[in-house]
Design goal:
Residues 1-33 form the Peptidase S41 N-terminal domain. This is Peptidase S41. The chain has helices spanning 21-25, 49-57, and strands at 66-72, 78-84. By secondary structure, the protein is an alpha+beta fold.
Length: 88
């Protein structure tokens, strides 16, 4: 939970209590909503391994709509957005 942005909003559940890793993973997300009623975390998801392999082998490329450049990788770090993709 320590690396999740809203870690303090997620109960510390025992992974042994879940039948699958996916079941456990799905509990590691905040249930909080924004002031407009939308889920606070809109990007928490899993993809089955087989589906991911099919996508990557078909040439499908996923991304964030931007690229970053590490100008300095050690502290004090200097990371900048080097470009953004149109309509992202």
């Amino acid at each position: 939970n320590e690396t999740y942005l809203w870690y303090d909003e997620v109960p510390d559940n025992n992974p042994a209590n879940y039948k699958t890793v996916t079941d456990y993973f799905n509990t590691l997300v905040t249930s909080a909503t924004t002031t407009t009623g939308k889920p606070k975390d809109r990007f928490h998801f899993t993809v089955p391994y087989e589906d991911d392999m099919k996508s990557s082998q078909s040439g499908l490329v996923a991304g964030f709509g931007f690229n970053w450049a590490f100008l300095r990788g050690v502290q004090p770090r200097d990371v900048r957005i080097s470009y953004t993709e149109e309509a992202s």
